[in-house]
TrEMBL record, chains A, B:
Its EC number is 2.7.7.12. It comes from the Bacteria. Its cofactor is Zn(2+). It is an enzyme of class 2 (transferase). One of its GO terms (biological process) is galactose metabolic process. Binds 1 zinc ion per subunit. GO terms for molecular function: UDP-glucose:hexose-1-phosphate uridylyltransferase activity; zinc ion binding. Pfam families: DUF4921. Residues 133-324 form the DUF4921 domain. Keywords: Metal-binding, Nucleotidyltransferase, Transferase, Zinc. This is Galactose-1-phosphate uridylyltransferase.
Amino acid sequence: MPELRKDPILGRWIIIAKERSKRPTDFIIEDYPTKGGFCPLCPGNEKTTPDEVLVYGREPGMPPNSSSWQLRVVPNKYPALVIEGELDKQAEGLYDRMNGIGAHEVIIETPEHEEHFTYLPHEQMILTFRAYRDRIRDLARDDRFRYVMVFKNYGRAAGASLEHSHSQLIALPVLPRMVSSELDGSLSYYRYKDRCIFCDIIRQEIQQDIRLVCGNELFVTVTPFAPRTPFEMWILPRQHSSSYIEQDDRTMAALTDIFSESLRRLDACIPNVPYNFVLHTQPLRSQPLEHYHWHFEIVPKLTSIAGFEWGSGFYINPMPPEDACRYLREAL
Amino acid sequence: MPELRKDPILGRWIIIAKERSKRPTDFIIEDYPTKGGFCPLCPGNEKTTPDEVLVYGREPGMPPNSSSWQLRVVPNKYPALVIEGELDKQAEGLYDRMNGIGAHEVIIETPEHEEHFTYLPHEQMILTFRAYRDRIRDLARDDRFRYVMVFKNYGRAAGASLEHSHSQLIALPVLPRMVSSELDGSLSYYRYKDRCIFCDIIRQEIQQDIRLVCGNELFVTVTPFAPRTPFEMWILPRQHSSSYIEQDDRTMAALTDIFSESLRRLDACIPNVPYNFVLHTQPLRSQPLEHYHWHFEIVPKLTSIAGFEWGSGFYINPMPPEDACRYLREAL
C-alpha cells in the first residue's frame, strides 16, 4: 500500500507510491503504459481499465463498461493512493506517516483518440467540467477524504503519459500544504480588509485592464501579477463563491466557453504547448467561505524547476504577465 | 531591470527577468549560450565572461582574468537579478513589487572542460566549498541582501545549460519562502522540545540505521524520511551549527570527502543522473541559531512536476528512502 509521509521541518507531505515502480531504475510515473498503438482509453478497450465510476452518454440499455459513451471516469490502474482501508496514522520516532488511503481517478474527456481538449466542441468539453463537479460531490460523502485535487497534464513534458485526452483527480486524507497556504493567505487578507482578496484582484484587473485576457458574463481570465511561468493564466468566476461543486449548469456552460477561448489563445501563441491546469476549490464538507474564491490555474510548461527554485520557492519567469496578456489578446 | 513580484495570496516571490528572453517564444533560461564547441568557462576565454570576483590558484604575477587558475567566480552574464541600484519597493494597488537588485554569480569549479564534479580530485573539489563560503562572506557585507542561495544544476534535465562543471549563487533582497518555512518549522520544534530538530534527526537516523547512507567524523549523509524524489540525499554536519560561513578548513575537507562519496554512490546507482543540490544555511548577518542546522540537499531529477504537484505541494515518489539507502550503500 502507498504511504503518506510528512517532512518534520516543513510539514510537506510526500506520497511514497512504491507500487508504481517495479524496478529500482524505473521512475517514470505512468497513468497507463502505452504499448505500441494500443490505447486503454479508447472505445472498445473498456475492459482494460478498472470499472467506470461515472459515465455520460451511454446509450440506454447498454451495460456498464460497454463501448458507447461520451465521457468516462475510471479509477487509475496505477493509483498513487488506494481506496480500500481505514486511515491509520503512526509515528516513527519524530516522524509521521499515514497509510496511503485516497482515490485516484482518470477522466476520459472524449471517446475520440485524436481530439485535443482545447478544440473539443462545447457540448463535449462541458461534460469534463460537469464530471469534475459530480465526482467531487460523490467523493465528499467519504469522510476519510479532506480534499479532491483535480488537474490535467497535457503533453509529455507536462507529465502526461497517454495521448488520449484525459484529466485526473486525487482525493486526499489530508489538506495539501498549497491549499492551506492559499486558505491562510486569503483569510488573513479577509481579516484585515473584510473583503475576499480574489474579488479585489478581479476588480483591480478589470480596472487596470493590462492583465485581463478575456471575459464573459460570468468569468474573467487574467495573467496573474506574479506568474510562475510565461503565459500562466487564472480563470476566475466574477461572482464570489468558494465552492466549485455548488455551480449550476449555466455556470458550467460559461466556464466551458472561457476555458475553450483561453486555451485557444494560448495555443495560438505557442502551438501545442504542454501545460498543467488545476482546480482550486474549498475543502470537502466546508461551509461556504467568505474569504476564498474557487478558480482554475493554467501553468504552461515553458521553464524548468532547478536548484534555485528547489531551494528558494522562488520562480524565475522571463516574461512579464502584461506582455503575455498582450500576446494572448492579439492571438485570436 | 528585473523585477521581484509577490503573489498576494501565497506570499510567493517571482523574479520577472525580462532581459533573459529576447523574443516572445524564447523561454530557455541559459546561464550562458553554448555556441558550437565554444565554452565561455574554459581557460583562454576569460574575456567572454564578466570580470572575476574571486579566483583561486592564479600564478603569482599573472593579471586578473588571465588563463591560469584553479577556480573562478564570475558574475552571470545573463543575471536573474542585477547588482547595481538601490532597493525600491512599490505597490500597484493590492500588489507588491520591488526592483530586481541582487547578485547572480557562476562558480567555475575546474579549468578542465571534461571533468565531472563527482570525480574531481579532493584538492580541486574542496575549492568549490571554500568558494561558497568566501563569496557568501563577501556578499553578507552588502546590507541590501538578506540571503545567498547557493546551488548546482547538473545535467540539462536539471536546468544546466553549459557542460563545463559549475555551480551558481543568487544573493536576494528578501528571505525566500522555502528558507523562512524551514526556519519557522525548526523554531516551532525548538520551542516545544528545546532541541534542534536536525540534531534529533541525526540521532534518530544513526540509531535506526535504515536511511544512513554514509558518514565520516564530521558528517552524515541520509536519505530523508519524506524525500521528494528517488535517491534524494541530505548531507548534515554532526555537530550543531546554523551557519555555513563559520566553518573552518578541516570541516571543508570532511565535507568534500562525504560529498564526493555521496555523489559517487549516486552515480553508481544511476549513471550520470541529472541532479540539483542546494546549500541550506542561516540568513545573512543572523546571530547563531539554536534551532537551525546548515546542510546540503541533493535532489536527483527523476520525476516530473505536474498538475498534482503544482496544485498540492505534495510530491509523489515511487521509491521509499529505505530502499534508496540500501541501493546507495551497496553501490560502492
